[in-house]
Write a structure and sequence with these properties.
3-stranded mixed beta sheet, 272 residues, two-stranded antiparallel ribbon, globular, 5 strands, 10 helices, mainly alpha
């Protein structure tokens, strides 16, 4: 059995400015996405440039931060927001909803696609493989903050962990489960699947199916939010409830992609 190491949430300070690990994890996620996006933009079968990757990162950052905080407020923290509306800006304390951030990114990518004469699903197919880099980093940030702890585990489980700031019971380190599945495993799946041309919407569909299934499964090891508890059937959490539509939409997108088999334009084709 392990003990949570009580990591200081502040990575370093510069004068009165405190830089939190949670914020750094988001920075690492965006930098990783930018690097991988630049690498993907060099492929001959993709019609993208380094400048466009940089523009997308900017749009995505706004979508993630604004959508993530708004989503958290609507889905998880409405009471806190009502008591203290300014809390919506407390990003360094955690409290980011993936599903809200996803909707924010979708809106940002829709705006980007319209402004730059791109098809929406060509944009989402291009960026989907980058997303797990940010998701994994975010879950590491959750672990460093000692938040979103797991459910009580069998004390004989070798990696069961006691979080002293919560209680003395052994728990699943669910943040690390999610970092592994939503981060590393999802990245490997999308990296492999997108390594060659696929029908339009297929990569987006695989992302939504995979993430939805991983999130639905790992939520069984995560303690439900104390102020919400189980929100349906006495066993479904809010994260699971929000993941089910993702799986359904992902299956629909993949089915439509396989039916049409329309591949996005390549860089060579667009230059003719």
């Amino acid at each position: 059995m392990l003990t949570y190491p009580e990591i200081d949430s502040v990575a370093f300070s510069v004068g009165s400015l405190k830089v939190h690990w949670y914020g750094l994890m988001y920075l690492f996620g965006f930098v990783g996405a930018w690097v991988y996006g630049v690498v993907r933009s060099r492929r001959d079968d993709l019609d993208w440039t380094r400048r466009q990757v940089e523009d997308i990162i900017f749009y995505a950052a706004l979508g993630v931060i604004l959508g993530g905080r708004l989503g958290y407020t609507l889905f998880y923290g409405w009471d806190v927001f009502i008591d203290n509306p300014v809390s919506i800006f407390y990003i360094w304390k955690g409290g980011m909803s993936f599903h809200g951030g996803m909707l924010g990114v979708f809106l940002a990518m829709l705006i980007y696609a319209r402004l730059h004469n791109k098809r929406f699903f060509d944009v989402t197919d291009f960026i989907a493989p980058w997303v797990p880099l940010g998701l994994g980093a975010g879950r590491i940030g959750n672990f460093i903050n000692g938040e979103l702890v797991g459910r009580v585990a069998d004390p004989n489980l070798p990696w069961a962990m006691v979080f002293p700031h919560i209680d003395q019971q052994p728990r699943h380190p669910s943040q690390l489960y999610q970092a592994f599945t939503e981060g590393l495993l999802l990245f490997l799946i999308l990296w492999w699947y997108s390594s060659k041309p696929r029908p339009r919407m297929a990569v987006s569909g695989v992302f939504m199916i995979s993430y939805g299934c991983f999130r639905f499964t790992t939520e069984f090891f995560r303690t439900p939010d104390a102020h919400l508890g189980f929100v349906a059937f006495d066993w479904l959490t809010m994260g699971q409830l929000l993941s089910l539509p993702m799986i359904v939409v992902g299956v629909l997108l993949y089915w439509l992609a396989m039916r049409s088999k329309t591949v996005g334009p390549s860089a060579k084709e667009s230059q003719k």
